[in-house]
Amino acid sequence: MTKQIIIAGSGFAGLWAALSAARAVHLAGKGEEVAITMISPTPNLIIRPRLYEAVLENMAPDISALLTAVGVMHLPGIVDSIDADHKQVTFLPRDGAPQTLSYDRFVLATGSRLFTPPIPGLKEFGFNVDTLDGAQALDAHLKSLASRPESLGRNTVVVAGGGFTGLETATEIPTRLRAILGEQAAIRTIIVDTAREIGSEFGTGPLPVIREALAETGVEPRAGLRVAAIDADSVTLSDGERIPAQTVIWTAGMRAHPLAAQVPGDHDNLGRVVGDAFLRAPAADGIFVTGDAVRAATDNIGNVAPMTCQHGLSLGRVAGHNAAAELVGLPTHPYSQPKYVTCLDLGPWGALYTEGWDRQVRFTREEGKKIKQEINQIWIYPPAPDRDAVFAVANPDYVIVP
Question: What is the pLDDT of residue 337?
Fold first, then answer.
């Protein structure tokens, strides 16, 4: 009987789990004995790290041909529930009735979602760059501002959250607003975060660089505060300040996809399953967890993979390989990713590139921007549908960072 590997999710981790699993099956010469199925709403890879940008073309490349080239089937729909005891999932197809699918190995790669607390007005008036639909809605809203009467609120954007996405979004916004409202418009961009200083979570080395970039791009910091309420025309902060603003972009915090809660075992405060060294869910036989759905140690000195594309690519390769390796008799591979880099886009100022978990500044401004553009436009995109070329880079210890 054909053994079944089911992968839930077609994001960075899900895609590379599928490619790595296909490679392992091919290496073992057991393509007729193991079937690999990916389940996601559409056969597309959403380029989520770029959704803060103004131009949203090519942000969802089709991976159908790629999956076909390596022998992976795609089912359009979602995994709605997991029955770990019976090794089954409930599949909700885009068209048709729910189905029960059995698996020998299941890889949870459904990623993460933006955390949206019950702040008054957030759901009604807030925008995000977490999904392609969200980014497109924000883009349409920003472009509509030009048809509204001139006002301080129309010309003001508040970004809630001073992490990676918040900083990249905020430093991009002034350029976008000027292109829409005109170079002479009196625009304001404000970034709000609960940290003692915007950018302090990046450490002492990057902080002065971020401070400089915010000042140069004209982004006003509001540190040590949170958004308390939002309405159609304003934002109220936790200190009582009311800011006239018709655009609020929420970027504050991520949580693992709710499906992760159905996997037995320990979970962290972000909802991620605590995986073992091979990215197995220790309390669920046959289940592997990867990408933003897993809490995994990157090394033996206490560092844990953050929810980033950089880690999702490697986590996917390892989980997919191991899921297949257990079925075809190949050695499994422990996850390890001790090298850590960051590249933070800071709008027209440039970009900040750091190395190490202590984030040592290596490149800034235009030098950093060139690296960021290469990451965003080349490294994270899916490869061409050439099976041999794909298998050459789908091994579980492949590293793409410099």
Answer: 96
